[in-house]
Amino acid sequence: MAFFMSWEDNYRLWQAADLTQDLQAELTEMAKDQNQLVEAFTQPMAFGTAGMRGVMQPGINAMNIYTVRQATEGLAQFMDQLEPAKKAAGVAISYDSRYHSQEFAFAAAGVLGAHGIKSFVFDSLRPTPELSFTVRHLKTYAGIMITASHNPKQYNGYKIYGSDGGQMPPEEVDQIVAYIEKVTDLFSVKSLTQPQLRDAKLLQLIGEDLDQAYLAELATITIRPDLIKKVASELSLVYSPLHGTGKMLYDRVFRTAGLTQVAVVPEQAVLDPEFATTLFPNPEFPQAFELAEQLGKNVKADLLIATDPDADRLGAAVRQPNGDYHLLTGNQIAALMVNYILAAKQAMNQLPADGCIVKSIVSSEFATKVAANYGIETRNVLTGFKYIGEQIEQMETTGQGHFLFGFEESYGYLVKSFVRDKDAMQASVMLAEVAAYYREQGKTMYDGLQELFEKYGYFQERTVSFDFPGLSGQETMANVMAAFREQPVQAVDGVAVTTTEDYLHQTKTLSDGTVTELNLPQADVLKYYLADETWIAVRPSGTEPKIKLYFGVVGKSVEASQAKIDAYQAALAPRFKN
Fold first, then answer.
1. Which pLDDT value is given to residue 578?
2. Structural domain for 131, as ranges
3. Phi, psi (degrees; rounded to nearest 5) at 169
4. Alpha-D-phosphohexomutase alpha/beta/alpha domain location, by residue (predicted)?
């Protein structure tokens, strides 16, 4: 199958192929919609540093068993070129609760096995952070996670992890993609069955053994176990796994931390690939918390926690004085955790002089200001948790710097480095400890957030997405980004831009024309700093056909900050018309 063929030719090849029964039925249904056929058969799905993600359906631009085999064949051919010891280390594989996730996981193992590569596959679904941990614990060469994270039910995805437990670095991904692109016949990829894999000792099921090892590390997250023990009987939490992998471990995670009053949202503790209780299983959306809020009011919970289906992202809501719940932003959650971690470590004389937190360039300066108050450095990296993982690796290798916390505004946090990706299980424990910290003082986390606002300023952030669907979407997105560079932003709503950072050209340009070099990797991102401490960033998504516009402001009140963002958004929105 050659991808430069017309969509009609590709479609005819799929019609003639011996497809699985479900895909054959879907292909017949797709014949009624030519637009859907054009989308599915014109060009292959992009495979980037975050892997691939798409709608589950037939086609070269979709998630199905054939595109999963194709991607795995690319990884296997790449591993064939490694020195024998690295290839023999094998690949760890996990998956979430979505349709076909387990099927895709064992399909990947079958392709690897055909190349003599051993797979360590979980016996049932497990969180993405546990997969990251497993790669490190078993010292495998790579890891595969089958998940579409917080996307709607029709999506699935495929992520590759490197030997450090972080997502595979761009250099290796580029080489893997080159091999993937050579696999032009998706239907001839060799694959072994599970019995064949077991007979050849190329498949090892894992589960409770890795759970116990991961849970042992999670038991070290709490800084002050005495604090949790002191308020455990009165600190009430509500947890929702949003129909996903968090269900597998949450009970033991919380009990190990000493948290005894944890109620789970029963309707959302069902492993349901339909995500029946929420349109979007995304813990940043208020709708995902509706059932948690109902239960929270019944049990008078101090804190509501929800994790996305693969349990790498965490969202939270805190009780307000009137009994209603306030949904925290990812940046506010990070600021609260940073403040507690640094305060607790300082009180115990455990705050290292060379400590630092790491965050993405599109995350708030709120936590940066908090950290600076404790004399702690903040390092900025490109979006993608693998870059936070690289900083951790650098610190541990050179001995320069001591990792204390990492986060992205998109609800991803890491407390300890035994995982090298965002870890909602770690974050759940730490956020509960923060709640205990305020409970001991007779306060709520909402009170704590107001205290931080009053001390550091009213930081507010917003992310706006502009969608560019269809085959022309990528071209339109490229044109929008090109226009930003050809017609530089010099002021927004009358406020001057003092500095422009272009991560594609790796330049930092001041308003007086001075240009210096940026020392971060190349990426298609523009970031503007305004005269009033505002920052604005423009960045195409790495997994979806959209451009994201980020705002970070600080003001003397919530209202003043929101007014700033509204004005800046209105001023820039016309640039995204397609």
1. 61
2. 7-210
3. -60, 155
4. 45-184, 214-317, 330-456
Average pLDDT of the chain to the nearest whole number = 95
Range 311-334 average pLDDT: 97
Please name the residues in contact with 7: beta carbons below 8 A apart, sequence gap of 6 or more: 37, 38, 40, 41, 42
Q: Give every CB contact of residue 324 below 8 A, 6+ residues apart in sequence.
A: none
Is 362 in the same domain as 466?
Answer: no
Any idea what the Cα angle at residue 474 is, between residues 472 and 476, rounded to 5°? 70
- Which of 94, 101, 132, 149 is an active site residue? 149
State which of 410, 430, 456 marks the end of a domain: 456
Clarify whether residues 436 and 424 are in a common domain: yes
**Are the C-beta atoms of 509 and 499 separated by less than 8 Å?**
yes
146 backbone dihedrals φ, ψ, rounded to 5°: -95, 105
pLDDT in tens, 184-214: 999 999 999 999 999 999 999 999 999 999 9
Alpha-carbon gap, residue 136 to 418, rounded angstroms = 8
Residues 235 and 333 in one domain: yes
373 and 483 in a single domain? The answer is: no
**Residue 415 pLDDT class (50, 70, 90 cuts):** very high
Over 90: is that where the pLDDT of 170 sits? Answer: no
Q: Is 119 a catalytic residue?
A: no
